[in-house]
């Protein structure tokens, strides 16, 4: 079983911010996601983020959520990793389940009414929490994405703070 550093355990903290309650703030350099609550509070989650060249930043919205989502890697990922072709969009993706890279829940991120192809989702790879290893998605432990999924509403704002040590494409 993978040991998770205690600093990445879910916790409620003081978090003064000008963002309104319900907003999600991804602190890419620190590997934390904050779900802003009323009264200067937030729930903090440890996360895994995009590796160099795949990270992103900007403001967007949670367009919708799914329980036990299918995983359909983008065509660009299938080109980089041909072994993923059985799970391509054309082939219908990978069915839900405990080994699906999307995990137990997923939040789908849109900007300007368009799918960014970025997601906040669970991961079967608990050891990736606190690291920059993904293809751009924000990973959470299964129990954390289930918790977050229950609290976040469609249309919630998400703000992704860039990591100055990486060159990041700006989403907006």
Automatic annotation (TrEMBL):
GO terms for biological process: cell wall organization; peptidoglycan-protein cross-linking; regulation of cell shape. The keyword Glycosyltransferase applies. InterPro entries: LD-transpeptidase (IPR050979), LD_TPept_cat_dom (IPR005490), Transpep_catalytic_dom (IPR038063). The active site is at residues 121, 137. One of its GO terms (molecular function) is glycosyltransferase activity. The keyword Ligase does not apply. GO terms for cellular component: extracellular region. Pfam families: YkuD (PF03734). Residues 22-161 form the L,D-TPase catalytic domain. Signal peptide: none annotated. Pathway: Cell wall biogenesis; peptidoglycan biosynthesis. Coiled coil: none annotated. Gene3D superfamilies: L,D-transpeptidase catalytic domain-like. Keywords: Cell shape, Cell wall biogenesis/degradation, Glycosyltransferase, Hydrolase, Lipoprotein, Peptidoglycan synthesis, Transferase. Belongs to the YkuD family. This is Lipoprotein-anchoring transpeptidase ErfK/SrfK. It comes from Pseudochelatococcus contaminans. The lineage of its organism: Bacteria, Pseudomonadati, Pseudomonadota, Alphaproteobacteria, Hyphomicrobiales.
């Amino acid at each position: 079983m993978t040991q998770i550093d205690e600093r990445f355990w879910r916790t409620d903290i003081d978090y003064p911010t000008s963002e309104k309650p319900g907003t999600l703030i991804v602190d890419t350099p620190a590997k934390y996601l904050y779900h802003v609550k009323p009264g200067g509070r937030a729930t903090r989650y440890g996360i895994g983020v995009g590796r160099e060249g795949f990270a992103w930043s900007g403001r967007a919205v949670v367009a919708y959520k799914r329980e036990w989502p299918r995983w359909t890697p983008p065509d660009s990922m299938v080109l980089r990793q041909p072994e993923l072709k059985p799970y391509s969009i054309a082939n219908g993706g990978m069915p839900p389940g405990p080994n699906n890279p999307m995990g137990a829940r997923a939040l789908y991120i849109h900007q300007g009414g368009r799918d960014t192809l970025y997601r906040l989702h669970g991961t079967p790879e608990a050891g990736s929490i606190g690291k920059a290893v993904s293809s751009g998605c924000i990973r959470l432990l299964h129990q954390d994405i289930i918790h977050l999924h229950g609290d976040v509403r469609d249309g919630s704002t998400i703000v992704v703070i860039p990591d100055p040590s990486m060159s990041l494409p700006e989403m907006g």
